[in-house]
Amino acid sequence: MAGGALLLSACAGNDSASNPTASGSASASAPASAPAAQTITYSYEQEFHSYNNNTAAENATRNAGPLQRVLTGFWFFGDKGAITPDKDFGTYEKTSDDPLTVEYTISDKAVWSDGVPIDCDDVLLWWASNSGKVKGFSSSGTTGVEDTKLPECDKGGKKFSLIYDKPFADWIANGPGATAMLPAQVVEKQAGLSEDDFIAAVKATDAKKLEKAIKFYNDGWISEGTLPAADLIPSSGPYKLSKMDAGQSLTFVANDKWWGAPAATPTIVERVIALDEQSQALQNREVQIVQPQPGPDVLKQLQGLEGVKTEISDAYTYEHLDFNFDSSPFKDKALREAFAKCVPRQLIVDNLIKPVAPESKPLEIRNVAPFQSNYAAVIAASGGGAAAYAQPDVEGAKALVEKAGKTGTEIKIGYQTPNPRRTAAVQLIIDSCNKAGFKVVDKGSEDFFGTVMPANGYDVALFAWSGSSLVSGWGSTYTTPVKCDGENKGNNNGCYANKEVDALVKKLNSTVDLAAQDPIIGQIEKILWDDLATIPLFQHPGLYAWDEALQNIVPNPAQSTITWNMDKWSLT
Asked: Using CA atoms, how far apart are residues 119 and 111, in angstroms rounded to an integer?
């Protein structure tokens, strides 16, 4: 994905789902015996859906999490979310500031699990699909890559450079990182192209010649209840995808072609288990690791389990309400303002988050986390726009609704179900905003991210973004989309548009000086509050629990999730 773009997570903030979520069984009568040490099982509440998580439709933690140690790259989000070079995959270094130039070298040992070397055509597939310069490829965001020249490499080449037209703030994480580089040999075969023809077509940015390649890249790796054929999904990491049982599990096995340190545990299984069943599943040792939705009841239950380690940690994930600017009543700014006035942000935090993280407060900005050192500086630079919505003003909201002549307007809140905490949050919004003259309707659905959100079938969406410390990662979320449809929106699902924000995002992305970034972020945040593009709610506390017999389980605040180092997991 380009520059660590924000990811949709269903529980922690940004997951797309094309299939209804299927719950794993977690009955109290299940045997309490742990699996053999040859296998470690962790839980997630949504089913894996695509080997390619880089498209606009599949840009989600439900895909990116499982792929962390299947598709490797030059860097990954390591311990504490830090940008970490993956020296097994290769090396890179900045060699010039003017023009900004970064040279990359893929390891001579790097090979796909089908035996094909990782080299030039894979690089060109990554560039073509993420630069926006070959029309038709779906991308979650072209930020950074769009400012680079075509990488110069030839068939079999292991070296290339990214040469930028302008400075880029996050150049260190702009080359292909974990989950970003996909096997060109698979795309070539599906498109009926030789390697030479594919390389030539990319160099010529010939979208017509690449038409079949583009179609396969966009849709050919989607898993509808079963994995694609093994020859379509080779691995470049310590694990490879082995089996998928629809609605139940995804199995990884050690990659015998991996050239780095072997995986510590031969088999890893991701079990699909509903959020409200994960604690019971851990108690029964149906799984050894859970990452449920934070809440007071689940925290109490986890803390009461014997032989279990529980951890609450910071996370680059935040909850928010996003308006639909394309086809909803919220095209009217007065109604957006009225809705923002009646949403009980403080009450939502008090009731649903503070019991887990007592220091939590409603977010005042969107794109810097409260635990980051520049949070206060960006709030100051934003002009404190959140203050007007610190507490509900139902009467003020009612006056705006009446003035607009929109009393009784139906408002559909969409979100991914099942999610007890979000259902509770929606009910608090209904209780408050219906008093202001709205008719708010709970439209949570099991396929919200799969079909409802892409089709703009909501008025306001409740979900979260899972991100990182990268400033370039959230640019496409607010940048005016080329077209308001599934393939062209990037991360801007509601199709918000503001030319001043577009210009400021470009300015921010080219600002290398960290101190100079804060005023720009503040300007963007001020406009987002003035426009009421979104309503930030709260920063997610990360909640994790695992069998204390496990070694090397390290929660990660970034979008790489807890699976970032799963090749190191072991069960004593």
From this structure: 9
CA quadruple 468, 473, 476, 479: dihedral sign: positive
389: nearest Cα among 277, 499, 536: 536
Blockwise average pLDDT, block size 10, the chain, 572 residues: 55 33 32 60 95 92 95 96 96 96 98 98 98 94 93 97 96 95 98 98 98 98 95 98 97 98 97 92 96 84 95 92 96 98 97 91 96 94 94 97 97 93 96 98 93 92 90 88 74 93 95 93 97 96 95 92 96 86
d(CA 411, CA 334): 14
- DSSP state string for 441-494: EE--BTTIIIIITTTT--SEEEEEEE--S-GGGGHHHHSPPSSSSTTT-TT-TT
Dihedral, CA of residue 112, residue 115, residue 118 and residue 124, to nearest 10: -90
- Residue 177 CA to residue 221 CA, distance in Å, equals 19
| DSSP state for residue 381 in the 8-state scheme | H
Tokens linked to 314: 């910071």
For residue 81, give both structure tokens.
């979310």
Spatial separation of the C-alpha atoms in residues 518 and 354, rounded to whole Å: 28
Q: Which amino acid is at 319?
A: E
Q: Which two tokens stand for residue 393?
A: 């003003």
Phi, psi values for residue 434, rounded to 5°: -65, -25
For residue 162, what is the enclosing H or E element?
A: strand 159-163
Q: Which helix or strand (DSSP H or E) is residue 250 part of?
A: strand 249-254
| Contact between residue 466 and residue 59 where contact means Cβ atoms under 8 Å apart | no
Sign of the Cα torsion 527, 531, 537, 543 reads negative
Strands (E), 336-402: none
Q: At what angle do helices 375-382 and 514-531 cross, to 10 degrees?
A: 50
Place of tokens 């699902």: 493
| Partners of 550 in the β-ladder | 571
- Separation of alpha carbons 116 and 187, rounded Å: 13
447: buried, middle or exposed (CB in 10 Å: 19+, 13-18, 0-12)? middle
Single out the residue of 377, 380, 359 nearest to residue 314, CA to CA: 359
Place of tokens 């009446």: 402
The radius of gyration computed from the CA coordinates of the chain, to the nearest angstrom, equals: 23
Distance of alpha carbon 114 from the chain centroid:
28
Question: Using the 8-state DSSP alphabet, how is residue 556 labeled?
Answer: -
Question: Residue 418 burial (CB < 10 Å; 0-12/13-18/19+)?
Answer: middle
